[in-house]
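Pinned message: reference record for DUF3039 domain-containing protein
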Amino acid sequence: MSTLEPERGLGTGTLVEPVPQVSHGDGDHERFAHYVQKDKIMESALSGSPVVALCGKVWVPGRDPKKYPVCPMCKEIYDGIGKPQGGDGEGGGK
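Predicted structure (tokens):
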């Protein structure tokens, strides 16, 4: 059964949604600085709620990101935002 399909039963269904994995401790096997919207970081700092990075990682920030290398997937996504699709990025036309 897919987690996005309702369970089949006696006329009612229950939608089962996956629970995101939230990291709170030092057990992360990856140590990267991730890209997150600035307003979300401030909100998380005040409320303790998790944030979602461009790469999809969900966690509660608590470390100095300057101590870690930038997540390659976040960087690739960030670098691709706002660039024209299907071109070589050089601008101009033929």
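Pinned by admin. Summary line: Residues 38-82 form one domain.
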